[in-house]
Amino acid sequence: MRHIPLNIINLSIVVGARFQGPLGAIVACIGLVGAPVILMMICGALYSRYGDASWLRGPLSGLAAAASGLIIAVVAKLVTPMFRRRHVAALVFIFAAFISVGFLRFPLWAVLFILGPLSIAVFWWRRR
């Protein structure tokens, strides 16, 4: 059996549940993600109020470039094992989603609504 490491949110839920039951799990999860969610809500409110300010265009452009670079780095790290193992079907779905959203400008929710169940069905069928 393969060992799958827990992510930090799952770990907080497990520890909270272990010490205080279901309420501890809820409080531990809220304690972990609560502050970042509030911070992002404040940033969103500030952006909606001051997003059109000319003095913010430069910093926001730099921030957008940095965020794009981080996303590209994460995608490259996640896709590398698929290229090594030659998961052709997974790569087809990845490129289909990328082209649909990035170039054809389909809404992300529609692409996920269609490709999500379709990819699950394909991999379920291949596994049988």
Structure description:
- There is one protein chain.
- The protein is 84% helix and 0% strand.
- The longest helix is centred in the first third of the chain and has 43 residues, at 8-50.
- It has a domain at 1-50.
- Helix 3 runs antiparallel to helix 4 (108-127).
- The chain is built from four helices and no strands.
- The model is unreliable at 1-5 (pLDDT under 50).
- It is mainly alpha-helical and 128 residues long.
- It starts with 7 loop residues before the first helix and ends with a helix.
The number of helical elements comes to 4
The low-confidence parts are: 1-5
Query: Would you report the number of β strands?
Result: 0
Q: How can the largest sheet be summarized?
A: none
Structural class: mainly alpha
Radius of gyration: 20 Å
Beta-strand content estimate = under 5%
What sort of overall outline do the alpha carbons produce when their principal axes are compared?
flat
Distance between the termini: 19 Å
- SSE succession: HHHH
Instruction: Tell me the helix content.
Output: over 70%
Task: Please describe the topology of this protein.
Elements: H1 8-50, H2 57-85, H3 88-103, H4 108-127
Summarize, please:
The protein is mainly α. It has a domain at 1-50.
What brief labels describe this structure?
mainly alpha, 4 helices, 128 residues
